[in-house]
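sanity check this fold:
=====
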Amino acid sequence: MDALSITTGVLTLLSACITVSIELKRLKQGSAEAGTTINALLSDVNGLRTVLQSMETTFDEIETREGFQKTGHIGAHWQNLNESLHDAYETLVELETLAKSLNRSVTVLDGPRRSMRLQAATTQIVNHRQQIQTYRDAMQFSLQTIIFWNTMSIKDTTCKVLPSMEALDQNIDRLASNLEVKLQGLLNLFSSPEQQPRKDAIERLNVFVKSAAIKYILFDSAYTVIDPDDINI
């Protein structure tokens, strides 16, 4: 998997986040009842957007310094990431379509009808929130393992980075635990035959998360930070 493909996937998903945010803001302005629900959804989309922006910056640094490894566990992880970026994009396209349908204007009783459409779409909105939150956390998990790898693989890494690495290590463990619960919840949610495409996407996301976990375990075991004071000469 080449760097351009991954960067393109990140930028495409970022663009979708912006487009969806615009539609959600329109929906919030057009219906008084939309406030709390849409604000929460906007927060989720913006959270995903923030992670993607960090990924873009980090990937630029990797490409500048050493390039993307295309084989082994790391190469497989980049491929899994690219697939999940595409799946996340499809999820946001679905959300954009939903938001546009809710934003539809009519000449008679426009406000009340918009509110009724919003109420009828509550389950869909909740499902999209769960998906976006899980994609956000999965991307964040991958990003954290990449940051861990970048930091620990720098030549002459010493005990000076140990405190920050321990905090990062704990954050990675927390994200992994949360993701396990969220992924299983989505797999249970999309159990009906008509939901199979969504279930397939979540299963691919699960593979992506597992590849990030494998990558992290390999890095964690390969790099051990040693305090010079602990070395007996």
Helices lie at 3-30, 35-65, 72-102, 110-120, 122-152, 162-189, 196-222. The CA atoms of residues 156 and 225 lie 10 Å apart. The chain has a mean pLDDT of 80.
